[in-house]
Model the fold of this input.
Amino acid sequence: MQRSDFRFFHRLRVRWAEVDMQKIVFNAHYLMYFDTAISDYWRALALPYEEAMHALGGDLYVRKATIDFRASARMDDMLDVGMRCARIGNSSMVFEGGLFRQDQFLVGCELVYVFADPATQTSKAVPQVLRDVLTGYEAGEPMRTVETGDWAALGEGAGALRRAVFIEEQNIPESLEWDENDAMVLHAVARNRLGQVIATGRLLHAEDGVSHIGRMAVHRNLRSGGHGAAVVRVLEEAAKARGDREVALNAQRSAERFYARLGYAVHGEGFEEAGIPHIEMRRPLQP
Done:
């Protein structure tokens, strides 16, 4: 196997606890490496695994796992675990993995999964939409779309995600989450290829040429996948198209570095909102 055989990689560093008395990675840990990588592979597909499988009406069960040892990894090695969907049968899927230290191929893996009914664990045909997601990803196709619209069109999906993130996860009082702006402003949602909403945000009306992005939320299982950034960029383009000169947002301090990477700079002093530390950040819109 070569690195060029894979679109997807999961990076990890070998830990002390994974090395045996021969000062190499204990053989059983390689299967854990590949299992960790395939969990990240589902995130690369923009699929929150549990919710996606529920929507598809089944689940995946390992039928066979084969490891091919070629060379050993050692303590503190930085490893890249490649993963790809190699074949899809009627009810089975074959994934191939390759573990690399830089360009050196160390260990290979073949994982055979069966799509099955969770209640009976009897096999079912792999749904066409899942086939399309897997083959599309391996072909380099995008795994999400971003659309804009009003609350009537997007509110059901956007509202469900905001409830999960702000009310259930962050314990923000429900009375503070919903306001009259929702019915009047532009909303954006990112969807995966199952149609599930995985990120959302809204763009308020501008004041003195400064518009405001708010209610940014990303599915907790899919953060750091670029979905929030995609929503921000779409809302920025909408603000620019209507002639706004600057975009502002009230960032939770835990997300400050995320917005800084998108070109936003701190504006003013920090403050608390709903008991959570925030900071205003702004970004000029280029003509």
Notes: Residues 151-169 form the longest helix (19 residues). The mean pLDDT is 96.
